[in-house]
Design a protein that fits this description.
Layout: E1 9-14, H1 28-44, E2 49-52, H2 62-76, E3 82-84, H3 99-103, E4 108-111, E5 119-123, H4 137-145, E6 155-159, H5 180-190, E7 194-197, E8 203-209, E9 214-220, E10 235-242, E11 245-252, E12 263-268, E13 287-294, H6 307-319, E14 324-327, H7 337-351, E15 357-359, H8 370-377, E16 384-386, E17 390-394, H9 407-420, E18 425-429, H10 449-458, E19 463-466, E20 473-477, E21 480-484, E22 500-507, E23 511-518, E24 524-531
Parallel strand pairs: 1-2, 2-3, 5-6, 6-7, 7-9, 13-14, 14-15, 17-18, 18-19, 19-21
Antiparallel strand pairs: 1-10, 4-5, 8-9, 8-20, 10-11, 11-12, 13-22, 16-17, 20-21, 22-23, 23-24
Length: 536
């Protein structure tokens, strides 16, 4: 076990070198310059751990492996603690059959406590042969879960190639791990402190919380591929641990890189637990608003819509005495005229309760000809609600399976937040999620998810609601809380809690208390307790 938390431990991460003589995507000059910088750090601390997180080669061919092995041996053969993981490019052209001959196992485990250290590091193979997408899989999930057996007095680090959350400034969201939602659940159970990924060629740092534990998500960027992103250039990351603190440095290699002056971030590693004041309701704290969030009613005259469940659920929400009802899309099952006929009746019944509501369209509501019927029978595609305490901006993320927010709507959010965010609690509502959902393949998030996450977190928007994939979940990224609703009255169940809705209570102190309520049993489950910024 841990011996001395004051001992300095260093982890240097580089990735996506894309070494090749033949594809034209390997920037040897960046590689050579970056190697000199890394070797300087290792010379200063020979006990540092050096990790390459995949895409060592560009095409996974025998010739690429030979050249990559030659370059890495020439520069790092004297580094005792050098470990490698596979990337999607390494697994092209049956590169998975070659990897072991050149680099050994496709994953690694490091326990520094054997040398008086304070860390365990698990590296997992997330690649799929001849696929750009990734997957951790059941065996990988089990390996992560086994880290639970190590005490929270250790720093637990998890590494894999593919990104876990969408990365800003990388264009259209694609090719992350398909089981990202399931991985997040296991990460919280295992008490992971730091997750390090690569793949999207842009370095990034996000702090994450599930309302109980916190962790850091670090992306390393590309070391020597010509496929750089904007002015990021080529980069690597250096992590230093000592005295229960983590210092992160993103190093830019070229003079034009925005990271040429190392971007530094220092955080406290608190054994996986949040500071007590982060999510506790203070006695006497005033409630400024209560919201009932529901989604995926799937109105239709057919069997997809569970009418009795819907009627019971509405009565239960009314008993919560909410200030606002928010429906996060897929109001109808197929957007046919007969579906909207049912919706018209149900919305009239809802209005009779004299409780304000806001509804955003889901992908099911807009095809094949739902857009016109929505505007005629439901209301605006981008609805807005305002009362003395709240300003709610609804966003139409479109009819496609993968949604889209777009630059114009981000501009709209920017204007709305600048206008109202300083004196009202501001939240954004959309159907598609920007974060992975458990028990669902991560293919249906908005295509510009990375930029949306970056936008709302940098603006410190306190709350974003969604309703994708019939599973209720919450997570805080930086200071923004994201809440997804389960299905309210569809028979398409993904959760053992069956049909549910969420109750979100907003306190004057900025604390959000979020519960999921089972309609069939009235059982309540705490989804999260968070503190947010910008509460008037």
């Amino acid at each position: 076990m841990s011996n001395d938390s004051s001992q300095k431990e260093e982890v240097i991460i580089f990735s996506d070198s894309h070494i090749s003589k033949f594809t034209g995507l390997f920037n040897k000059k960046a590689f050579t310059t970056g190697v000199k910088l890394i070797k300087g750090l290792i010379k200063a601390n020979p006990t540092a751990y050096l990790l390459h997180l995949g895409d060592i080669t560009d095409s996974g061919t025998y010739e690429d492996f030979v050249y990559a092995k030659k370059l890495l041996d020439a520069n790092f053969s004297d580094v005792d603690n050098f470990f490698t993981l596979t990337g999607n490019h390494d697994m092209r052209n049956i590169g998975d059959k070659l990897w072991k001959d050149f680099f050994g196992e496709r994953q690694f485990f490091i326990d520094t406590t054997k040398n008086g250290g304070n860390m365990v590091i698990l590296g997992i193979d997330s690649s799929e042969p001849d696929e750009n997408i990734g997957r951790i899989g059941d065996r990988g999930l089990e390996a992560i879960h086994e880290l639970q057996s190590y005490g929270d007095d250790l720093v637990k680090i998890l590494c894999f190639h593919h990104h876990l959350l969408p990365i800003p400034n990388t264009g259209r969201e694609r090719s992350m791990i398909l089981d990202a939602g399931d991985v997040m659940q296991v990460i919280w159970d295992a008490g992971i402190d730091v997750i390090i990924t690569a793949h999207r060629h842009y370095p990034n740092i996000f702090s994450l919380s599930n309302g109980i534990r916190s962790c850091l998500l670090v992306n390393s960027g590309t070391f020597s591929s010509f496929k750089t992103r904007g002015k990021a250039g080529h980069t690597f990351v250096d992590l230093n641990f000592a005295n229960e603190r983590l210092d992160i440095n993103i190093h830019g290699i070229e003079s034009y890189s925005k990271f040429q002056e190392p971007v530094e971030e220092s955080v406290s590693i608190l054994k996986g637990e949040l500071k007590p004041q982060a999510g506790y309701i203070v006695p006497g704290d005033k409630i400024i608003s209560r919201i009932c969030q529901f989604s995926d009613t799937h109105f239709s005259p057919g069997s997809h819509f569970l009418a009795e469940v819907y009627n019971l659920g509405i009565k239960m929400m009314i008993r919560e005495k909410p200030n606002l009802l928010i429906h996060c899309g897929d109001l109808t099952n197929d957007a046919y005229p007969e579906d909207f006929a049912v919706a018209k009746i149900k919305l009239k019944e809802l209005r009779d309760f004299n409780i304000p509501y806001l509804i955003v369209p889901g992908s099911r509501d807009l095809q094949p000809f739902g857009r016109e019927m929505w505007v005629q029978q439901v209301g605006p595609l981008d609805p807005i609600y305002e009362d003395p305490n709240l300003r709610v901006l609804g966003i139409d993320t479109g009819p496609e399976a993968s949604g889209h927010v777009g630059r114009s709507r981000l501009t709209m959010i920017d204007h709305e937040f600048d206008t109202y965010g300083s004196y009202k609690f501001f939240l954004v509502v959309m159907h598609h999620s920007v974060l992975p959902i458990p028990r669902a393949r991560f293919k249906r998030a908005v295509t510009d998810a990375g930029d949306v996450i970056d936008f709302v977190t940098s603006h410190r928007v306190p709350l974003v609601l969604s309703g994708l994939d019939h599973y209720a979940t919450t997570m805080q990224v930086e200071e923004t809380v994201f809440v997804n609703a389960g299905t309210f009255s569809s028979k398409k169940i993904r959760s053992k809690r069956m049909n549910t809705f969420n109750v979100i209570t907003i306190y004057e102190s900025g604390v959000l208390h979020i519960e999921e309520v089972e309609i069939h049993s009235a059982t309540r489950h705490l989804l999260g307790l968070y503190r947010t910024p910008n509460v008037p």
